[in-house]
Write a structure and sequence with these properties.
This protein is α/β, with parallel strands linked by helices.
Length: about 650
């Protein structure tokens, strides 16, 4: 796009002599202008400089590449004060602390929670004296009210959408005052419904997503413009998996000469760059044991650890951080409840109820407890689709039942259980409930207060966080009634040779030095999910699962195991003529990672007459194209057996 494509005299002025009209004059564009927009001595500075040189030579700027660079900069962070003592508009400004404050899908409480200085921060336009002449803007005055609710990136998109003759490529480095370049998806989402797209971008083909249907475009000529979702403080751009994938460096790996396709998400999820960077930052700048010290690093580490606890609390909507106990993972959380609450409250003749869907981690600890106490273990059956038989469950809920423990999403079949209903039924019978959220927490919104379970457990590595860290949520009255499980440092108030006085929860259940760094990494992972929006993830993954299910059903000889109406991101199958491990090995040759085996859920597979299955499992960084690659590989395997008479 050349300067001739831009209508001048729009009257858009940033103050202090900065005239937006001049921003489009690329004839005098200097490469260093791009470099100046990159804060501090950042390693992406060279790339930005090269982009500026290209702009000065060609007369147009690749916005997609600039957005990618800016996204990496803000994901990786930069030192406090990197913007210097003046902002991009020449105004004096206080030194800017840091954190990755991209525009996101979090509720206002979550976005405003960061009152402490953090390693990374980006100022919003009001903090740097951004004061456009709204009366002189070349679009409807309803945008004035939208300005009061929009971030800098949103307002820039407002200007772009309503500037005449902008086609295909736009020059935005000066539009944004060198302060903030939004994610490419933000631009595409905010410009939805107009004929403006950013350079190098491909229009997202997601109009068929049911969760996008009915969303109004940013029509500023409408009287409802002020309430348009494009300018809501809680809005988030339309989900774009191609952009999300750029946040996960491992997805660039080559396996057997092919691009990695990670379909083993039910086993573990991959980690975004922000989580990797947060772990590195902790070890480089904050590493210390927590709580009991007066030095600076102990304070930093303690703040980071407890901030992560608050992030977990917010993510699952727990009433208090005192309800959040850090553990190694779901398995340890269940064992903690069994060894502490279970040993105190169960005796001979009592009953524990679990479902046929359970992972071994939600079977074995209860078997051990029954062996120790004389209690009995009962199992809720499932129908032929893999869904809980609620009538049978109701018949089991006698006064003898002290605890019900079941999964919200089956790791082997993907079945989504009617958790809220089952919890209420158990409470009506006087039983406590533990809900296993290991497979649900990354796929759907978790609200422990609404679910009303007494315990909720999950693992960090299943929700894009590090391995070796997980969470036990417990209601306060239940946790306070539980004896300490392990003894040691950190969980005591006072120790003598005669007795020990313990802290209250959560410290009572966090003996010794915890996994501090990975707790911090888990917090970063949950914040990342919050920025994308868990509901956006759920809707996209649902459509992806529908597509994948239809595709796999067309493969001759393939049998899907688990066909419940309510499912989440798991497809378990067998293929005629092949062992599961043979299919897994063949797919690996195509760069496709799936799980082959019994998935630590032997009872439910045997319920369907099989010992093992092949299990592709989806996440929000998977795509329709990847499903096509999987399907084509399975079709070749199927046709090969057919051609050999099998």
């Amino acid at each position: 796009m050349t300067t001739n494509n831009i209508q001048q005299n729009n009257g858009f002025n940033l103050g202090n002599g900065f005239d937006l009209n001049a921003a489009h004059d690329l004839s005098s564009f200097e490469p260093e202008a791009i470099l100046a927009a990159v804060p501090g001595e950042h390693p992406r500075a060279a790339a930005a400089l090269a982009l500026g040189r290209e702009a000065s030579q060609t007369g147009h700027l690749d916005v997609a590449e600039l957005s990618r660079i800016a996204s990496e900069i803000y994901a990786e962070g930069f030192p406090a004060g990197a913007f210097g003592n003046s902002n991009a508009f020449g105004n004096q400004a206080t030194e800017i602390p840091s954190t990755a404050s991209l525009s996101d899908a979090r509720e206002p409480e979550a976005r405003n929670i960061a009152s402490k200085a953090h390693p990374y921060a980006v100022p919003d336009f009001k903090s740097v004296g951004f004061s456009p002449d709204m009366q002189a803007l070349p679009f409807n005055r309803n945008a004035t009210e939208a300005f009061n609710h929009a971030g800098l990136a949103d307002l820039s998109a407002v200007y772009l959408q309503n500037s005449p003759n902008l086609q295909n490529q736009v020059e935005i480095s000066q539009l944004l005052g060198g302060m903030d370049v939004p994610y490419q998806s933000q631009l595409n989402g905010l410009l939805a419904g107009s004929n403006v797209n950013s350079a190098g971008s491909k229009q997202a083909e997601n109009n068929h997503y049911y969760f996008l249907q009915g969303l109004p475009s940013a029509d500023l000529n409408s009287s409802s413009a002020a309430s348009n979702p494009a300018f809501s403080t809680s809005t988030h751009p339309a989900f774009n998996a191609d952009l999300v994938r750029k946040d996960f460096p491992i997805l660039n790996e080559q396996v057997n000469g092919k691009q990695l396709i990670w379909f083993d998400n039910a086993a573990t999820t991959q980690k975004p760059q922000v989580v990797i960077d947060r772990l590195a930052y902790f070890y480089a700048h904050e590493n210390s044991n927590i709580h009991r010290a007066a030095h600076e690093l102990a304070a930093r580490a303690t703040d980071a650890y407890e901030d992560a606890r608050e992030t977990v609390r917010r993510f699952i909507n727990a009433p208090s951080v005192d309800n959040i106990i850090f553990v190694r993972g779901t398995t340890e959380a269940i064992n903690l409840v069994a060894k502490s609450w279970g040993k105190k409250h169960l005796s001979a003749g009592d009953e524990i109820v679990i479902s046929h869907l359970e992972h071994h981690a939600n079977i074995v600890p209860w078997q051990q407890l029954c062996q120790e106490t004389g209690a009995k273990l009962k199992v809720i059956p499932v129908d032929n689709s893999g869904q809980i038989l609620l009538n049978e469950y109701q018949n089991m809920l006698t006064p003898k039942v002290k605890l019900v423990s079941f999964t919200q999403v089956s790791n082997a079949l993907g079945t989504v259980t009617p958790a809220a209903q089952m919890i209420q039924m158990a409470h009506n019978a006087g039983a406590k409930v533990l809900l296993d959220g290991a497979q649900s927490v990354s796929h759907m919104r978790t609200d422990v207060q609404s679910l009303n379970a007494d315990f909720f457990v999950f693992s960090g590595h299943k929700v894009f966080g590090p391995t070796g860290i997980g969470v036990l949520y417990g209601k306060p009255e239940v946790l306070n009634d539980m004896p300490a499980w392990q003894g040691g440092g950190n969980m005591i108030q006072d120790v003598t040779f005669d007795k020990t006085v313990y802290h209250e929860a959560p410290a009572k259940f966090e003996a010794g030095t915890g996994n501090i760094a990975d707790a911090v990494g888990l917090g970063a992972a949950l914040e990342y999910v919050e920025r994308i929006g868990i509901d956006n993830i759920a809707h996209y993954e649902h459509e992806l699962l529908v597509y994948a299910t239809a595709a796999l059903n067309k493969v001759p000889g393939l049998r899907l195991i688990g066909t419940a109406q309510d499912k989440a991101s798991v497809l378990s199958f067998t293929l005629n003529g092949y062992k599961s491990e043979e299919v897994g090995a063949a797919l690996n040759q195509e760069g496709i990672a799936v799980r082959s085996g019994h998935h630590c859920a032997q009872p439910i597979l045997r319920r369907f007459g099989v010992e093992t299955t092949v299990r592709p499992s989806l996440a929000f960084y998977n795509t329709y194209a990847e499903i096509d690659v999987l399907t084509n590989a399975l079709l070749r395997l199927s046709s090969h057996k057919a051609s050999n008479g099998l």
